[in-house]
Amino acid sequence: MLKLTAGIDPIEAAFHTGYASAIHTASDLITLTGTNVDQWMAASRNILTTEELAELAQTAAQILARRDGMAVAA
User: Fold this and answer.
1) Do 73 and 53 fall within a single domain?
2) From CA 35, how far away is CA 38, in angstroms rounded?
3) How far apart are CA 31 and CA 38, in angstroms?
4) CA distance 46 to 67
5) Neighbours of 58 (CB within 10 A)
6) How far apart are CA 28 and CA 5, in angstroms?
């Protein structure tokens, strides 16, 4: 559970909440693919390549567009 410090800026709190949510979602997705989460996390400590970042960004954009019912160019 995320515990916020008294007086924390609401934007900072929103960032930390979003980050924690993203980590949990990533862990769930990694588990669903049958990959070992600990192994993935250890490997992810290396910086992603430009191509990998672009691939992740494109996938995220497609998922968000699907949720909004909009088309995304591939």
Assistant:
1) yes
2) 9
3) 10
4) 31
5) 13
6) 28
Buried b / exposed e over 18-50, threshold 16 CB at 10 Å, is eeeeeeeeeeeebeeeeeeeeeeeeeeeeeeee
32-40: long-range contacts (C-beta < 8 A, 24 or more apart)? none
pTM, rounded to two decimals: 0.42
Q: Which domain holds residue 15?
A: 8-43
Q: What is the mean pLDDT of residues 21-27?
A: 82
Give the DSSP letter string of the chain.
---PPTT--HHHHHHHHHHHHHHHHHHHHHHHTT--HHHHHHHTTSPPPHHHHHHHHHHHHHHHHHHHT-----
Within a 10 A sphere around the Cβ of 15, how many other Cβ atoms? Answer: 11
Residue 61 lies in a domain: yes
Residue 36 has pLDDT above 80, yes or no: yes
